């Protein structure tokens, strides 16, 4: 292991390795708030410090510590010192002393967060231990802010032979927190979860620009309106440091009705359920660390959800432009939680479409103009949901019974043929009011029935007039 940067910077603090040869003089200036373990001997030069730390980490029977002085970056004033040590365990302990004049300025919190970040990046350990005086409320605030969990309580004597009542906090590192978040995700019912690092999407931005310039987005002007945020996630959420992508299996069954509705719309509107689960996930993360902030995103947000899903390893973007997973095929709803903390990232998944072109060959309107490119102007899903007014007869003649959406390019996909699993989420199963509708019922659908059948349903997006238009098209096509 090579520690390349021993100097840790935060907004207001600078931590530097120090020698303790002059510790008696310097430590008389302030009273310790938390017991800290010091070097009996420490090097002055940074190269020696790196060598010392690397050596100490490797040897379990020697003092294992990193001592830092805390300076105000703007004035250079000495404010205290911080330390990290290992004595008879592989679990590092953190400690800090802050000069009385600096109390209340959040220097302790910033220092511990900086040390924790250094440990996450440089040490191979499951978690950190942070002991504090149980009676000191201010000291307890720091590990509690960091999501510390009480590990144990014990008594010990300090250097003045006074008895201290110690609470030892167990503080998760980046790896352990990441694992916990993934566990929370699955407990909340998400089928898939992966994490990627936010970045400006250069290659994907060029493809998006070309897609829009070709007018493949048809009348969906809302895509253009926030295109800068889609390309640059930092413009949407400047604080983002991790993108959690989730997938939720929604497959109910393949429709065989004469009047067909896309699988994703047979149950309740997924937007509400997905967002609710994402905010539940955020709340559970905040119970560990109250400083975590985030935004929950579904496909109404200006985020390229399919790109982030691929980068996080959930699935790959298929030739039909859908995200295909190895667990559920493409029958998954996507969502994201953008967080202001760094997590362990997952590897992107490769494209497993190979030479297959079944989705392209099966599209009756030729909407898949080339692999990975959908022309919405010719897509049955767009025409039956987003399109307002009349539809060209050349295209409507090929609707094949679809009155809302279209699943053809998904139904023929070999991965879906092989991997489709009925969803365990009852809200995504076909509604009874939809199931009982015959062709005659659809043809005689009233606006009041439309409101009853599709209450809290995605089908409301096409509105009553749009659905009636689609039903009339299928009725004409059968003549």
Secondary-structure content class? alpha+beta
Strand content: 15-25%
How many β strands by DSSP?
A: 18
The strands making up the biggest β-sheet line up spatially as: 1-2-3-4-5
Give an account of the 3D structure.
- Strand 13 and strand 14 form a beta hairpin.
- This protein folds into two domains: 8-172, Gcn5-related N-acetyltransferase (GNAT) (Aminopeptidase, 3-Layer(aba) Sandwich); 177-477, no CATH class.
- The strands form six sheets. It has a five-stranded antiparallel sheet with strand order 1-2-3-4-5. The protein has a four-stranded antiparallel sheet with strand order 9-10-15-12, sandwiched between helices. A three-stranded antiparallel sheet has the order 6-8-7.
- It is built from 20 helices and 18 strands.
- By secondary structure, it is α+β, with helices and mostly antiparallel strands.
């Amino acid at each position: 292991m090579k520690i390349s940067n021993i100097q840790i910077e935060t907004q207001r603090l600078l931590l530097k390795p120090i020698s303790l040869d002059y510790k008696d003089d310097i430590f008389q200036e302030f009273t310790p708030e938390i017991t800290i373990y010091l070097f009996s001997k420490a090097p002055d030069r940074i190269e020696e410090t790196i060598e010392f730390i690397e050596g100490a980490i490797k040897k379990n029977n020697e003092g294992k510590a990193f001592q830092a002085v805390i300076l105000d970056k703007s004035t250079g004033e000495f404010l205290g010192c911080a330390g990290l040590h290992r004595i008879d365990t592989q679990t590092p302990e953190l400690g800090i002393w802050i000069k009385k004049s600096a109390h209340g300025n959040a220097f302790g919190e910033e220092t511990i967060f900086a040390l924790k970040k250094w440990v996450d990046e440089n040490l191979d350990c499951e978690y950190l231990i942070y002991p504090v005086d149980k009676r000191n409320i201010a000291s307890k605030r720091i590990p509690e802010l960091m999501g510390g969990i009480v590990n144990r309580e014990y008594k010990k004597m300090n250097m003045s032979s006074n008895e201290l009542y110690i609470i030892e906090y167990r503080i998760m590192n980046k790896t352990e927190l990441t694992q916990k978040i993934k566990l929370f995700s699955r407990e909340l019912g998400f089928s898939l979860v992966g994490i990627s690092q936010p970045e400006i999407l250069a290659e994907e931005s060029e493809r998006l620009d070309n897609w829009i310039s070709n007018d493949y987005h048809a009348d969906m002007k809302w895509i253009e309106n926030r295109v800068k945020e889609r390309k640059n996630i930092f413009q949407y959420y400047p604080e983002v440091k991790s993108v959690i992508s989730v997938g939720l299996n929604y497959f109910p069954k393949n429709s065989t009705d004469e009047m067909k509705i896309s699988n994703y719309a047979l149950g309740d509107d997924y937007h509400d359920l997905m967002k609710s689960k994402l905010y539940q996930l955020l709340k559970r993360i905040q119970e560990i660390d109250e400083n975590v902030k985030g935004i929950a995103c579904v496909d109404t947000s200006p985020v390229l959800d399919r790109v982030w899903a691929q980068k996080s390893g959930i699935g790959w973007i298929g030739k039909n432009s859908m995200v295909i997973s190895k667990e559920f095929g493409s029958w998954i709803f996507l969502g994201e939680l953008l967080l202001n903390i760094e997590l362990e990232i997952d590897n992107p998944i490769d494209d497993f479409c190979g030479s297959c072109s079944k989705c392209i060959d099966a599209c009756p309107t030729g909407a898949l103009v080339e692999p990975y490119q959908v022309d919405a102007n010719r897509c049955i899903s767009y025409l039956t949901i987003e399109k307002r007014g009349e539809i060209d007869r050349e295209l409507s003649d090929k609707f094949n019974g679809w009155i809302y959406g279209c699943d053809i390019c998904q139904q023929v996909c070999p991965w879906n043929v092989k991997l489709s699993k009925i969803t365990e989420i009852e809200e995504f199963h076909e509604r009874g009011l939809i199931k009982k509708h015959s062709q005659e019922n659809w043809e005689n659908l009233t606006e009041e029935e439309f409101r009853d059948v599709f209450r809290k349903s995605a089908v409301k997006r096409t509105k009553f007039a749009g659905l009636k238009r689609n039903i009339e098209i299928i009725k004409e096509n059968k003549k």
